[in-house]
Structure formats: structure tokens, C-alpha cells
Amino acid sequence: MKEDFPLLKKTIYLDSASTTQKPNQVMQAMQTYYEEYNANVHRGIYTLSEESTKLYENGRKAVARFINAPANKIVFTKGATESLSLVAHGLQLTEKDEVIVSIMEHHSNMVPWQQTKANVKYAPMKDGKLDMEALEKLITPATKVISVGHISNAIGVENPIKEIAQLAHSNNTLLVVDAAQSVGHQKVDVQELEADFVAFSAHKMFGPMGVGVLYGKIELLKPLVTGGGSILTVTTKGTTFMEGPHGFEAGTPNVAGVVGLTAAITYLEQLGMDNVANHIQEMTTYATSKVVDLPHIKLIGQGKGILSFTVDNVHSHDVTSILSEQGVCVRAGHHCAMPLMEVLGINDCVRASFHAYTTKDDIDALVKGLAQVKEVFA
Ligand SMILES: Cc1ncc(COP(=O)(O)O)c(C=O)c1O
Prior knowledge:
By secondary structure, the protein is α/β, with parallel strands linked by helices. The protein folds into two domains: 2-22 and 273-372, Alpha-Beta Complex (Aspartate Aminotransferase, domain 1), CATH 3.90.1150; 24-271, Type I PLP-dependent aspartate aminotransferase-like (Major domain) (Aspartate Aminotransferase, domain 2, 3-Layer(aba) Sandwich), CATH 3.40.640.10. It contains twelve helices and 17 strands. The strands form five sheets. The chain has a seven-stranded mixed β-sheet with strand order 2-10-9-8-7-3-4, sandwiched between helices. A four-stranded antiparallel β-sheet has the order 13-14-17-16, covered by helices on one side. Helix 8 (255-271) crosses helix 9 (273-291), helix 9 packs parallel to helix 12 and helix 10 (316-325) packs across helix 12 (360-376). It is globular, with a radius of gyration of 21 Å. It binds pyridoxal-5'-phosphate. Residues 79-81, 106, 108-109, 149, 153, 178, 180-181, 201, 203, 336 line the site of pyridoxal-5'-phosphate.
């Protein structure tokens, strides 16, 4: 499948958790949109605008089908970060409310909650996983929200979302799921997960940057951004807002981005999500087996497309630079999870991440590059 991804001809790309490469099919769909359909949506009565609107709304239907949700519960945003911010701020929490997040969250699922009036509590980890007993103990009658990642971007742990949903719902608590690392990696059925809100980004699932999704009980939210496109009436005395997703999509939306996301979904559906998940797991297992016995490497986390590690006495940035000289792209740093790094007792680590296009040759190149790192720093 690498032939579908022009950039993969030039590089050994092991940073898909950060953003995936884009297949020709996605880029072509966006190009065709601009060449043949470009017009603003929802406003014009002329044919071109109607066609553009249809493509945009078809995107909503495609997303809804992909995650098994009703289309009128799908809001387009800029990305997972904006989706999570929309829920955190849109719920209008007060000082009396409590929110629980896990300590392994990406900053995008921690900082927005910290910026609300609510008291944020942090569920700890035990033996490399979310400590479910501790999470349960943190729940009180004031707990309005539990917000957790489906799969950790830093250590590849998958959280037991259904179990957390049951805990949350038995306490009348809303469950928000950051699915940035799962919707493009395995079959995600939001109804089966029993999540009240789910956030993700198109660019981590072969789609373009600048488009994201918030699924859920949007009727509970106040919009973050208001203005044209989201209103019913405006007078000098006040404004009435549209109900449903459009009430949250003020301004001209990223129509070409949604068209790209639609093409990405088609691409993933053609691959088959079970095949995608199996391949990602196979690559993760292969990479782990190749790295686990290297004496200069300490594994930090492995699973679900993620392999993170430190190299003895070498800063992760130096590891990444040497790998980059060999044409291998991996990520170094705190992976937007500084509280998790603190719990793990490290400042940073190297992360290689895999997707449907990753091959064993790519991973062998990583292992060869790590031998080079050892030589340089011996
Ligand atoms: C788990 C997780 N949540 C949220 C985000 C934020 O996504 P975006 O930057 O697309 O808004 C990321 C991106 O790395 C992520 O991995």
C-alpha cells in the first residue's frame, strides 16, 4: 500500500501517532473539490453551493457511519484538541463540580479541564495501566465528568472504556473519550463504548490537518465560537442559535478538509478496520521483539502502534537526530504528556509509532539506526 503514499517513497516514517501520511486518494479528493465544487456551504441557493453543501454533509454521514453514531450528533472542529476544549468549556462547569482525568492523558485532554472552574482530580496508574480501583475511589456525587484517552499516545496503553462508562453512568457522570489514537487504528463503535462524547482528529487517520470531530450529547453544550452560520435570527436585542451540529460550526468550515476526511474513511473502510488493527499490532509486536533485548535500550511502553523507549545516557533528541540522518523519522520529547513522564520518572523518551503502511523493513531500519546511536555515543 506504500505506493498510495508519496512521502513514504522518500522516508522511513515511524511517527504516525503524531500525524499519519496521506494517501493520493485523499489529496486527489481535496484537489477535485477545489477544482470542481468550491463554494461556500449552507448559504447559496445556486447549484455549486448546493453541491458543496452536499459534500460537506455527506462527510458528516460518513463519519457517523464509521463510528456508528447518528449524523446529528457529529460536530466538525479543527481537531481533537478543539473537540475536547469544546466539551470542557461547553459544559459550563462550576466550582461545585469535579472532573476526573487519568494521569496518562495527552495535554489536550488535561489542560482544557484545568481551565474550567471545576476541581480536576487525576486517576493514577498501577503496573503500567490505569488504576481502576483508584479511579472508582475518586468518584463522588460531585463528579460531573470522567475524561480519558482510549489509547495513550505516549505508551500505547488501551483503557477499558466500557468498564469506565459503567462506573461513570452508575454515578450520573458523563464519560468523555479522547479517541485521537484509536478511531483510525481499530473499529470504534461509540455506542458500544457507551461514551457520552468522543473526540478525534482527521490527520491521525490518513485525513488532512485542520479537521476534527466531536461526537456526543451536544445538546448539553454551549458553543465555544459563535457568529455567522450558527444562528437562526439576529436582532439588536439578541440572537437565537441553530440546534444540532450547525450551532457549533460558526464561520466558514473546512469543507475541503471534510472532503479529505471522507476519502480517508473510504480508504480505511476498504482496508478493513480489523485488518488495520491486526497489522498495527503485528508491527508493534515485531518492533518490541527487536528492541527488547538491546542492552542500551529501556522500554517505556509498547502496544497499539506505539513503542516508546529511552537509550542509556543519550538524550532522546540526540537519538532522533541520529535516526534522522539514517532517514528514519521518530519523535522525541514528553509527547504532550508531562504528568505521565513525571510518574514514569523520566523527562522524555523516544517514540516510534506504526500504522497500516508500516513494514518490517521500516522497523529493521530503526533497529539499525539504534545500533548507530550506540556506536556514536560509545
Ligand atoms: C491522545 C491524543 N489526544 C489529543 C491529541 C491532540 O490532537 P490534535 O493535535 O490533532 O488536536 C493527540 C495528538 O497527538 C493525541 O495523541
